[in-house]
Amino acid sequence: MVTGILKQVSFFSGLGSADLNKVLSIAGVKKYTAGQMVFAKQDLGNNFFIVKSGRIKIFTTVGGKRKIFAFLKKGEFFGEMSLLGGRVRSASAQAVADSELFVISKKNFRRLLCENPEFSLKLLQTLAERLSKANRDVESMLFHNILGRLAEAILDLSRDTRAKPVKMAIDQNELAQYLGTTRVPVCRAINTLKRSGIIDYRRGELVILNQARLKSMAGEA
Amino acid sequence: MVTGILKQVSFFSGLGSADLNKVLSIAGVKKYTAGQMVFAKQDLGNNFFIVKSGRIKIFTTVGGKRKIFAFLKKGEFFGEMSLLGGRVRSASAQAVADSELFVISKKNFRRLLCENPEFSLKLLQTLAERLSKANRDVESMLFHNILGRLAEAILDLSRDTRAKPVKMAIDQNELAQYLGTTRVPVCRAINTLKRSGIIDYRRGELVILNQARLKSMAGEA
């Protein structure tokens, strides 16, 4: 039955039942309360994590400034980087809501990789996606102004939302940190998008009113 | 004998002989002259490439501006991104010197992944490294000024050079594009580093004179 639940979860959806049972048999489960750190940048990395429930923020801090790389939810994973190479964590991870994580040790992670081609393929696809996202971030910072970057960030963060019109709860500070900037310019950019009728934003809820114009501002075809 | 040669090459160094022979048996070899494009961003991706000899530039262009992501040499690979997910190329690839490439078709690439755990592991490690590099690029752009970014780029580009002091041939335009900026600010920053006795730069050859100070400017410990 647990296998059934897991199969609905994105990371596991590409895995066969045999692979899935193997993952399950070696994973522990750990609970984190909202605000609790899972690990900090530069910690030694000894575990791989899959989100069972809740929401995890991946971010970096340099000299007091903060950049959020991603918000991860049910079925998404993290912590693979230091197990694949660098030994120390390349970013920090923090629970932003009460969360449960599947925890897999370094040794078991390596075993999964060697024994389960589907597991490796799934990991490879996700790393390729994240790399592609990071390169788009770089492009975006070099070539776009704050409005284009905000448009892109809103589209990124809403990509899995099925409801039409797209609504999402997001804090202005979080949005600023996702862009790696401060609250004031983001607040100004939000107001510009509101005045143009492209989005609405009230009490922490953002609604996309004109997806086509948002895409064109983000430089998407 | 070819197996012997390949084993010295970084991508293959982690593979056993059986895996290696499998890669070899399914790869074609293609020649490119200096300046020739291997593929362009947005092309459909149907091949995976390993550099046999020469030098390949991976870059993106947005509205006339250019950003170089990497220079790849013997034993390094590229082209995996669109085979793992996105279908179209996420960046452009061009030979900057006369080059030979091993070419592996999409179908054979998938077969290699499923049948050879070591091949997958090697790919995963490299993607993790590149993701980590991309995230450092993002951090660097957000948190450093042009001097810090130049210091970081010089260290990146010289990472595999064994000679002491480190010398490398690099064009100011290429350096600017590696930073995603234009020639003038880079030229100014190079002169600052020269005046401080940290590097020397003459007729396209850069010499690192004070690695420790360069590292501290780049924010490395």
Q: Please state the average pLDDT score of chain A.
A: 84
Q: Unreliable stretches of chain A, pLDDT < 50, 5 or more residues?
A: none
The top-level CATH class of the largest domain in chain A is: Mainly Beta
Q: Please give the largest β-sheet of chain A.
A: 4 strands, antiparallel
How many domain modules of chain A? 2
Radius of gyration of chain A: 19 Å
How many runs of DSSP E, i.e. beta strands of chain A?
A: 11
Which descriptor suits the 3D outline of chain A? Answer: elongated
Short description:
2 copies of one chain form a homodimer. Chain A has 221 residues and is an alpha+beta fold. In chain A, 47% of the residues lie in helices and 25% in strands.
Q: Could you please describe the fold and organization of this structure?
A:
The structure is a homodimer of 221-residue chains. The first copy, chain A, has 221 residues and is α+β, with helices and mostly antiparallel strands. Chain A has helices at residues 2-7, 10-13, 17-26, 81-86, 106-115, 117-143, 146-157, 172-179, 183-195, 211-217, and strands at 28-32, 37-39, 47-53, 55-62, 65-73, 77-78, 92-95, 99-105, 167-169, 199-202, 205-208. Chain A has a four-stranded antiparallel sheet. In chain A, strands 2-7-4-5 form a four-stranded antiparallel sheet. In chain A, strands 9-11-10 form a three-stranded antiparallel sheet. In chain A, strand 4 and strand 5 (65-73) form a beta hairpin. The first copy, chain A, is elongated and about 55 Å long. Chain A starts with a helix and ends with a helix. Chains A and B meet through strand 5, helix 4, helix 5 and helix 6 of A and strand 5, helix 4, helix 5 and helix 6 of B.
